[in-house]
Each structure stands twice: as structure tokens, then as C-alpha cells.
């Protein structure tokens, strides 16, 4: 069969239409930029949807991948694998927690956490302690458990019925939190900074009350660090500045350095919940992905990329604030390290399209939020290029 030329029409013929792909064919990436097969250069302010934390083409990452791939690519969890142990040890050192379970994606990490929480809740034979809650406006993934904890009708619609005994607490609403949790609650899932929801941070007061209620009703607090974790907010995990140690932490996205990898990290008290055979996955903790993940974390520390996220993020916020004084289109700026949301007074897709015409890739979420998740390695000059581009778009829009 003749290989069809790659174009948007072919994509329409070959695939289910669940992605609205950009009409760009990527040839390669370098640092904060990718290059198309047409030879055009784009500044990537979304970094593979928050995955490419150290940018494209990092030699340390490539070396870790090729070195491990030359030894073995897959053997399964029937065996001891050093790359898994090394990455698990690093995650435990960073978090101060006790146990790690590796899977392949964010949604799988959430599934594992739901299962672990329910099994923990049932440890004394209490079959009524099954309720799993999340916060409105959240996103936890696409498989049924994670989807049942996900807020947006756009993601959930048509897939019902969802997993029983799941529900949502109004974001940052302490009264609703007090109303919803009880001795029947097994776990509450929290994105400390909501990503898909438009970059919203949970309040300290809400977390303080959640912590108190978790102790009172004996339920687990699960931090979903899939988007906000691995240094993006300036801390390795976004829960870290809060006065709270979650019982479970879910990580993914950059965790495998661009290869599929997810993890659940657990505290002491849940260490014995999973027993042989009670949960598992064929590919979870793939050694090449683990080697890549370790190289990525080491690069984050070596290059002081969390410091860069804090500094460059603050510089971007200051510039956006100045921009907001002259452009009425900017309604609100929310910035936590290099996790940035700009609420605008129209569909954010307009700015995505305009920026793309100017070779800058930004992203839209929650209809009217421009979302920026650049590589943590982005330089101030590159960040300025994005700011100048958006500034020009806002200015020209007013003149049009
Ligand atoms: C906060 C959060 N949780 C879970 C997920 C699901 O991760 P994955 O797409 O790897 O399944 C995402 C993905 O965007 C996310 O942002």
C-alpha cells in the first residue's frame, strides 16, 4: 500500500477525531524551540502539555535513554530493575515518604490511588467507607475512576454512568467541605494548583480544614501533582509550601523525561495496603522511562530549574501586570512558578491562533484562559519573546 502523505485530511481519515491537532509537522526540537518539517521555528510555551521540563534535545536525557535501551528496554515487574530503584529512591528522598508504585500515565496513577485509598479504608472490614471526592473545576484523567473525579462536563459527558461513591466539593469552599466529608469518606483528591481548570491555587484555609477533617474522619489526602509537580511551581511538588503532608502523591507528565511514566508515592501508614497481585501493570516503571526520569530530575537540580521557574515566572507575571494596565482584554493573571493562566475577555483560542501565526505556541484552557507551561529551562530572553508576541497581539486587536 502506498504510504499516504501526512496532512490534516489524512489525519481525519486515519484516526478517531478526539484531538484537534495543529497543522504542524515536527522535525525536531532544541531547547525551548521546535522546528517543523517546513523549516519554521516555534517557541514552545506548552512543552508537550507540561511534559518537556528540561526542553528538547538535552544530551543528559538522551544519554540516559540510549544507555539503558542498550542494556534492556523491558523485562517486566517480575524482576529487579536498577533504574526503577534509583528513581524510586530519588522520589522518596524528595518527598520524605515511604513507598512508590510505578505506572505509565497520570490517569493510571490516579486509578492506583483510588484503589489504594478504598482498600486502606476497608482494612478493618468497614465496607461503607468508600466515598472518594475531588474538587470542582479539577482534572484527574480519562479512565473511569479518574474521569469520575473530573469536573468538566466536556470530558465526562456521554460516558456515564461513572464510578459509584464519587463526588465533588466546591473549590475552596470550607462549608461545602464540611458538608461533604464524613466517616464514609475514603479519600479527597486535590490539585494544589489546578491546571486544566485554568491555573487556580487551593487556599491555605481550605487545606488546613481538610487536614483537620482528614484526622477526624480518617480519610486520605491525595495530591495530584501530575501537572503542577516536578518543579513546575518552583517547588518540586506544589503541596510543599502548604502545612500538610499528603498521604499519597500522584506524579506523571515530566516524570519519565518525555517517556510514559506515572507514580504513586505513599506515606508510612499506607505502606502495606498493596499485597502481591493486588495491583499491577505490565509496563509500569519501564526501565528506560525510569532512567530518563532520573536524568530529568538530576538536570532540574543541577541546572537550578526550580529557581528559574520561580524567577522567570515572577518576571513574566510582572510584565503581564504591566500589560494588563494597557490592555483591557486581560482580566486576571495567575502565576505559580512557570504555571501561568491569563484570563481574557474572549475565547482564549483567538490568542492561541494569533500567537501561532507569529511562531509562538501557547495553549487555551477553560474557554477564556491562556495557559503557559513552558520548559522550566526557558531563558528570560525566550520568555520575553512570548511576552512581546502576546503584547503585540493585544495591541493589534484593539486597533482592528
Ligand atoms: C492534574 C492532572 N491529573 C491527571 C492528568 C492525567 O494524566 P495523563 O494524561 O497522563 O493520563 C492530567 C493530564 O493533563 C492532569 O493535568
Automatic annotation (TrEMBL):
Gene Ontology BP annotations: L-arginine biosynthetic process
UniProt GO MF annotations: identical protein binding; N2-acetyl-L-ornithine:2-oxoglutarate 5-aminotransferase activity; pyridoxal phosphate binding
Entry binding sites for pyridoxal 5'-phosphate: 106-107, 139, 224-227, 282
Signal peptide per UniProt: none
Keyword ATP-binding: no
Residues given in the record as N(2)-acetyl-L-ornithine binding sites: 142, 281
Subcellular location(s) of the protein: Cytoplasm
Subunit relationships: Homodimer.
UniProt name for this protein: Acetylornithine aminotransferase
Source organism of this protein record: Chlorobaculum parvum
Amino acid at each position: 500500500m502506498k504510504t499516504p502523505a501526512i496532512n490534516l485530511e489524512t489525519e481525519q481519515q486515519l484516526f478517531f477525531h478526539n484531538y484537534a491537532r495543529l497543522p504542524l509537522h515536527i522535525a525536531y526540537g532544541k531547547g525551548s524551540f521546535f522546528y517543523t518539517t517546513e523549516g519554521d521555528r516555534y517557541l514552545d510555551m506548552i512543552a508537550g502539555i507540561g511534559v518537556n521540563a528540561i526542553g528538547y534535545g538535552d544530551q543528559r536525557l538522551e544519554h540516559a535513554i540510549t544507555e539503558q535501551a542498550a542494556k534492556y528496554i523491558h523485562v517486566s515487574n517480575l524482576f529487579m530493575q536498577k533504574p526503577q530503584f534509583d528513581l524510586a529512591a530519588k522520589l522518596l528522598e524528595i518527598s520524605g515518604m515511604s513507598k512508590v508504585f510505578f505506572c505509565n500515565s497520570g490517569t493510571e496513577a490516579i486509578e492506583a490511588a483510588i484503589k489504594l485509598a478504598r482498600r486502606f479504608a476497608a482494612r478493618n472490614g468497614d465496607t461503607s467507607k468508600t466515598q472518594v471526592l475531588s474538587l470542582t473545576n479539577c482534572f484527574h484523567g480519562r479512565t473511569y475512576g479518574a474521569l469520575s473525579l473530573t469536573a468538566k462536563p466536556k470530558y465526562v459527558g456521554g460516558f456515564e454512568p461513572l464510578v459509584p461513591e464519587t463526588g465533588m466539593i466546591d473549590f475552596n469552599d470550607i462549608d461545602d467541605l464540611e458538608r461533604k466529608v464524613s466517616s464514609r469518606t475514603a479519600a479527597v483528591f486535590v490539585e494544589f494548583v489546578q491546571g486544566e481548570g485554568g491555573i487556580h491555587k487551593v487556599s491555605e484555609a481550605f487545606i488546613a480544614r481538610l487536614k483537620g477533617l482528614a484526622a477526624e474522619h480518617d480519610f486520605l489526602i491525595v495530591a495530584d501533582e501530575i501537572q503542577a509537580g516536578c518543579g513546575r511551581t518552583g517547588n518540586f511538588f506544589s503541596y510543599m509550601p502548604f502545612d500538610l503532608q499528603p498521604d499519597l502523591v500522584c506524579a506523571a507528565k515530566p516524570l519519565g523525561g518525555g517517556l510514559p511514566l506515572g507514580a504513586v508515592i505513599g506515606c508510612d501508614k499506607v505502606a502495606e495496603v498493596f499485597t502481591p497481585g493486588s495491583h499491577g501493570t505490565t509496563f509500569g516503571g519501564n526501565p528506560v522511562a525510569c532512567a530518563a526520569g532520573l536524568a530529568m530530575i538530576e538536570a532540574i537540580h543541577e541546572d537550578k530549574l526550580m529557581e528559574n521557574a520561580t524567577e522567570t515566572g515572577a518576571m513574566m507575571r510582572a510584565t503581564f501586570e504591566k500589560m494588563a494596565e494597557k490592555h483591557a482584554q486581560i482580566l486576571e493573571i495567575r502565576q505559580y512558578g512557570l504555571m501561568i493562566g491569563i484570563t481574557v475577555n474572549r475565547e482564549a483560542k483567538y490568542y492561541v491562533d494569533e500567537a501561532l501565526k507569529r511562531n509562538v505556541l501557547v495553549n487555551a484552557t477553560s474557554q477564556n484562559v491562556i495557559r503557559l507551561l513552558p520548559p522550566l529551562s526557558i531563558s528570560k530572553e525566550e520568555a520575553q519573546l512570548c511576552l512581546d508576541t502576546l503584547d503585540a497581539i493585544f495591541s493589534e486587536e484593539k486597533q482592528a
